[in-house]
C-alpha cells in the first residue's frame, strides 16, 4: 500500500490525504464513496472527493491537510525544528515568531507600531 510505504520512508506522523478526483463524473464512478471512505479509515488516511472541473473540495483538501499538520505541531507529535520531520517553516522570520522565547509581548521601546 502507498500509505504504508510513505509511512515507512517518512515520519510515522505523516499526514496523507486520499483525494477521489472527478467527483463531477458520478456516472463513470469505479469506486464507491463508501469503499474509498472505508479504505481511508482502515489506513488512517484523510479522505475527500474533489472535482477540478467544479472546484468542489479542492481548496478544502489543502485546508484540512494543513489544519491536521498544524494540530500535530501544536500537540507535539510533529516538530518542524527536528531534522527529518518533513516540515519546515518557509521563512526564517516565521521561525523567530514561533520561537517560545519570543512568545512574550514586546515592550513599548521594541514595538515598531
UniProtKB/TrEMBL annotation:
Keywords: GTP-binding, Nucleotide-binding. GO terms for biological process: antigen processing and presentation. PROSITE patterns: RAB (PS51419). InterPro entries: P-loop_NTPase, Rab_GTPases_membrane_traffic, Small_GTPase. Pfam families: Ras. The gene is RAB4A. GO terms for cellular component: extracellular exosome; perinuclear region of cytoplasm. One of its GO terms (molecular function) is GDP binding. This is RAB4A, member RAS onco family.
